[in-house]
Design brief:
CATH topology of the largest domain: Rossmann fold
Number of domains: 2
Low-confidence stretches: 220-225
Distance between the termini: 23 Å
Radius of gyration: 18 Å
Oligomer: single chain
Amino acid sequence: MSQSLIFDMDGTLFQTDKILELSLDDTFNHLRSLNKWDTVTPIDKYREIMGIPLPKVWETLLPNHSNEVREQTDAYFLERLVENIRSGKGALYPNVKEVFSYLKENNCSIYIASNGLTEYLKAIVSYYNLDNWVTETFSIQQIESLNKSDLVRSILEKYDITNAAVVGDRLSDINAAKDNGLVSIGCNFDFAQEDELSQANIVIDDLIELKTILPKLENTQLINK
């Protein structure tokens, strides 16, 4: 039976922290220039909520601002993220391309399911040529509920997938696996939280570990916690 792996993007494949603070500073400097922000950039708060859909991010970071301002801020932030990606200021995590090559060589299909916006994901996939290995990249924008479990379900249905695991660093990834009866592989990377990772079936510290995990996924029926 062929195996599929569904990867999160931010904090799993892409080292978002390399452009996060830079892009967030750009955005809040822009708000300051419009007299719509007068304190420090809330980078720590953003790190706490990293992984949730961007509309909910701005509700948290800009609780006293109008929806119009939040939408404008969201658009500006996206522009800065994309520009910083295209300028080469970001980076993939170690061994992404090596692992992707290994997975493809071993008849494993690769998908990306992310809470990131479509344009942002396209910039990463294009800059790092991930389409060489990834069958398709899915954005939370494609799902009305903004729920990652629903996003993963849409991948399973579109490609008629029955044997898969979800690889990600946050609880939304782990729950997306559980809700769809899949194996959850938690990534103990930059944004990961111990209490969330404890709910995953498997935890890794480096993507290279997937090379040893893949045969086990193919031959062992894992039961979700």
